């Protein structure tokens, strides 16, 4: 029985005459599944670690970071389920519309919109911490709660609009339920969600970069520290732009020819998985507490002790003395 199924699968992946299935479909869906599994693991590891380290008090920045990681993890989970269904159709050699297809498409749109709004909130929080850190209103937990509630409400309302107006269809080329180019207004609407989000995130981070580069020389240490943060932010921005590579190509092609290339939505899903996986990995390694938790600490020998401190206007003069050698005297970076 197994040999018969294996032979049938080999015939499917090598036949191009009567069957539209090709080997790269299987490779494409397998890479999507692998990327989503990595993203889910990293996202929930991030959330669990922050809960363990910050309990019982949680900062607003960590809560926003956890919210973003959870949004990426949930989006990757729905994409993983969809990819498994697509892979099942790959083995069959033909598409199969099931009763839960529209439900999966709806959940994916809710998570998709919520994820990009979470990334916008994360960018706004970075703006708050660096530039508007003295404003008591935007630093409050009440403001955070209102923004989170607003994000969830907008994601649900937008998805309900797509469902009630029958905007989610089964695409027989990608074996997925999503918004296709057959529904013109819905297709434009979903593309605008991505472009508006990326425009907002890019504008915020460029403004932060401009602000940091124009800090006074007396704040050189702070400036150096923020530039290190911005390097990681730019990597995150590149990861978020990756899904837009195929999206931009699809948009231009659709505007010129009135349709999109065959199987382009399947390729876009792969780029989405790559971008979201890279984004959550970047968020994970950019967090100071997580780096201290999971990265190996380097041992160094302590060869000086502080005797006196003399305060000055902007700094301290520290007088040190080398202690006697001891094999047990060690510190950590």
From TrEMBL:
<protein>
    <recommendedName>
        <fullName>G-protein coupled receptors family 1 profile domain-containing protein</fullName>
    </recommendedName>
</protein>
<keyword id="KW-0812">Transmembrane</keyword>
<feature type="transmembrane region" description="Helical">
    <location>
        <begin position="102"/>
        <end position="121"/>
    </location>
</feature>
<feature type="transmembrane region" description="Helical">
    <location>
        <begin position="141"/>
        <end position="164"/>
    </location>
</feature>
<feature type="domain" description="G-protein coupled receptors family 1 profile">
    <location>
        <begin position="35"/>
        <end position="286"/>
    </location>
</feature>
<feature type="transmembrane region" description="Helical">
    <location>
        <begin position="269"/>
        <end position="290"/>
    </location>
</feature>
<dbReference type="InterPro" id="IPR017452">
    <property type="entry name" value="GPCR_Rhodpsn_7TM"/>
</dbReference>
<keyword id="KW-0472">Membrane</keyword>
<dbReference type="GO" id="GO:0016020">
    <property type="term" value="C:membrane"/>
</dbReference>
<feature type="transmembrane region" description="Helical">
    <location>
        <begin position="63"/>
        <end position="82"/>
    </location>
</feature>
<feature type="transmembrane region" description="Helical">
    <location>
        <begin position="233"/>
        <end position="257"/>
    </location>
</feature>
<feature type="transmembrane region" description="Helical">
    <location>
        <begin position="31"/>
        <end position="51"/>
    </location>
</feature>
<feature type="transmembrane region" description="Helical">
    <location>
        <begin position="184"/>
        <end position="213"/>
    </location>
</feature>
<keyword id="KW-1133">Transmembrane helix</keyword>
């Amino acid at each position: 029985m197994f040999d018969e199924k294996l032979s049938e699968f080999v015939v499917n992946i090598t036949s191009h005459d009567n069957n539209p299935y090709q080997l790269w479909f299987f490779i494409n869906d397998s890479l999507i599944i692998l990327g989503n599994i990595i993203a889910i693991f990293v996202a929930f590891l991030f959330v669990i670690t922050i809960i363990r380290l910050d309990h019982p008090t949680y900062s607003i920045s960590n809560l926003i970071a956890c919210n973003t990681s959870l949004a990426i993890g949930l989006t990757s989970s729905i994409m993983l389920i969809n990819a498994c269904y697509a892979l099942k159709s790959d083995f069959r050699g033909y598409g199969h519309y099931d009763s839960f297809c529209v439900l999966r498409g709806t959940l994916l749109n809710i998570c998709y919109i919520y994820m990009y709004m979470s990334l916008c909130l994360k960018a706004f929080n970075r703006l708050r911490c660096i530039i508007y850190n003295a404003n008591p209103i935007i630093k409050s937990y009440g403001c955070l709660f209102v923004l989170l509630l607003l994000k969830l409400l907008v994601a649900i309302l937008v998805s309900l609009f797509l469902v009630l107006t029958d905007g989610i269809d089964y695409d027989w080329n990608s074996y997925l339920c999503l918004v296709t180019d057959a529904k013109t207004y819905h297709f434009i609407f979903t593309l605008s969600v991505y472009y508006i989000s990326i425009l907002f995130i890019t504008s915020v981070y460029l403004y932060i970069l401009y602000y940091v580069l124009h800090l006074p020389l007396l704040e050189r240490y702070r400036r150096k520290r923020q530039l290190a943060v911005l390097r990681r932010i730019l990597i995150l921005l590149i990861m978020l732009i990756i899904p837009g590579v195929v999206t931009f190509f699809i948009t231009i092609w659709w505007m010129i020819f009135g349709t999109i290339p065959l199987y382009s939505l399947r390729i876009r899903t792969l780029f989405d998985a790559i971008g979201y996986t890279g984004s959550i990995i970047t968020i994970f390694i950019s967090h100071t507490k997580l780096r201290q938790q999971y990265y190996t600490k380097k041992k160094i020998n302590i060869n000086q002790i502080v005797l006196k401190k003399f305060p000055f206007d902007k700094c301290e003069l520290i007088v040190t003395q080398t202690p006697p050698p001891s094999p047990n005297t060690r510190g950590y970076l």
